[in-house]
Amino acid sequence: MCRWLAYTGSPVLLDDLIYKPTNSLVVQSLHSRLGAEATNGDGFGVGWYDEHSPTPGVFRSIEPAWSDRNLRELAEHVRSGVVLAHIRATSGTAVQQTNCHPFRHGRWLWMHNGLLAGFSAMKRDLVLAIDPELFPLIEGSTDSEILFYLALTFGLEDDPPAAVARAVGLVEQVGRTHGIAFPVQMTVATSDGARLWTFRYSTEGQSRSLFRNADVAVLREQYPENPVLHDLADSTRIVVSEPLGDLKGAWHEVPESSCLVIEDGREELQPFRPAA
Questions:
Q1: Which residues partner with 115 through β-bridges?
Q2: Taking the model in full, what pTM does it have?
């Protein structure tokens, strides 16, 4: 499948997030510990927000993250307080730039790990449910982008948890009509630049891995000799497909069937259930 991270906190260089950690995304692109595949080399992408524009910047490439020199250059110069980064392992759709995450619509970013099982059978029904005004904006061929546009259709910009619940509910409904037992496997991150929502859910109740960082102030007390922790603000929140390092107690698993909402360093964990 894929691996991703979502960061919100004081502005940091992309390099600090995607290269420097012991088990960074770039390391995971070659040697994922918890992913469905050890190698995630079918492209990557990074999206970030800054003070220059309400629309986030996006850089996507079909090159493997471990070998892309442009990513290295970018990472050493771009600084942001909200970052979404993704490395891709395709579940069958083409390796092309428009299929790389994160996807963008206006001020919104979206990325997904997992798959919609039986997508080829469901695709026509799902696409026809997308708002006709949004349909021309779809650029790629992935199930992840279709799920994004379904969420936009159902009101992502007004109420993300409700919109994602309706989108997932529709996929499961369509899946049942096609005899697909477990249509949805997902961890999702989406942001408008001010808030971050992450979701962990699968129809079968065995979702892909997802973790959040422990409170930085507590970690700083436990590990006073660790210089990395002194560089992070107390409001720092990171949600990842798998931990970025081996520091004991630094990572907590996000529960199955849940939505984690983060704003200004505050977290709210909610149950997530698809809506009919």
A1: 185
A2: 0.95
